[in-house]
Amino acid sequence: MVMTGEDHVTQIETSCFDLVSYLKEKKQLVEAALDASIPITCPEKIYEAMRYSLLAGGKRLRPILCLTTCELMGGTVEMALPTACALEMIHTMSLIHDDLPAMDNDDYRRGQLTNHKVYGEDIAILAGDALLSYAFEHVATQTHNVSLTNLVDVIARLGRTVGAAGLVGGQVLDLESEGKSNITSDILKFIHVHKTGALLETSVVSGAILAGANLEDIERLSHYAQNIGLAFQIIDDILDITSTQAELGKTAGKDKQAQKATYPSLWGLEESQKQAQILIEDAIAQLAPYGREAYPLEAIARFIVSRKN
Ligand code: GRG
């Protein structure tokens, strides 16, 4: 690609954007809000189990995307914080259920024992259920200064994202595909668009809707999010092969062990990395109309392909 003088200036400017500080600041905000969102009350055991996984760290990418998009579209952090927390509650419950013996059967997550290893399978299932229902209660009761139409739109999208048209649907096909050698890249894409991409897309789009964005911006940001969602999963598949348990905070090499089709198994490592990069460039191209206001979203997209866990 031939780089013009203007491209060069833009690249230097975005490379000056301090993503590390940006993510740190937003992560602190989200973690304080998550901590405050679920006090321990009776019966203590279930609240402790919910908090154990919710406050176990993680990149907090979904809430950060929601806050960032809301601000890009002229909204405030306060308008989006309850939805940002709900996205993390939903993500966390999906990890708790994903790790259960009936699903991926994992002992470690986010660098610590999985929820069922500490509290037992019965409580882990219930902690996931409680986080899921509380996510909806939290958005509905804690969101202020947002039009009711937009709030209902966000709640409806969250519901769709979680269910058979989203995470659950992707997980079902993922489980059914284990051990099969005839998984095509179309099936693999379907799994990951639903299992991983849907929640990332809703994170981006809900931030925009809460801020009152117009349809054109929502579509543009949707396109950005679909691309980063797929790139995120491609990198996740690569890291499962190339990283260690200490780096990932969860068991490495699980995909091969479970005989799962992955992007590297279909395309090889190098081509998978290349495809992820292409998706990220396409995502970033969607941000052009927003200029430097979109540097955080651009930097997050670049982080997704360069991340180590
Ligand atoms: C949603 C009702 C309901 C049930 C759950 C188990 C299940 C259905 C779906 C599985 C969803 C799943 C675990 C997808 C994987 C997504 C993924 C790549 C997770 C890793 O995300 P990171 O890297 O993790 O953002 P951290 O720990 O940083 O938050």
Automatic annotation (TrEMBL):
A GO biological-process term: terpenoid biosynthetic process
Gene Ontology molecular function:
dimethylallyltranstransferase activity; metal ion binding
Q: Which GO terms describe its cellular component?
A: cytoplasm
Q: Could you tell me which pathway this protein works in?
A: Isoprenoid biosynthesis; geranyl diphosphate biosynthesis; geranyl diphosphate from dimethylallyl diphosphate and isopentenyl diphosphate: step 1/1
**CDD domains for the chain:** Trans_IPPS_HT
Entry keyword set: Isoprene biosynthesis, Magnesium, Metal-binding, Transferase
Q: Which reaction does it catalyse?
A: isopentenyl diphosphate + dimethylallyl diphosphate = (2E)-geranyl diphosphate + diphosphate
Q: Which InterPro entries match?
A: GGPPSyn_CRT-like, Isoprenoid_synthase_dom_sf, Polyprenyl_synt, Polyprenyl_synt_CS, Prenyl_diphosphate_synthase
Cofactor(s) of this protein: Mg(2+)
EC category: transferase
Record SUPFAM superfamilies: Terpenoid synthases
Source organism, top-level taxon: Bacteria
Q: What is its EC number?
A: 2.5.1.1
The keyword Magnesium is assigned to this record = yes
Report whether Magnesium shows up as a keyword of the record: yes
> What family is this?
Belongs to the FPP/GGPP synthase family.
NCBIfam families per record: FPPsyn (NF045485), GGPPSynCrtE (NF045685)
Q: Which PANTHER family did the record assign?
A: FARNESYL DIPHOSPHATE SYNTHASE (PTHR43281:SF1)
The name under which this protein is listed is dimethylallyltranstransferase
Q: Which organism is it from?
A: Atelocyanobacterium thalassa (isolate ALOHA)
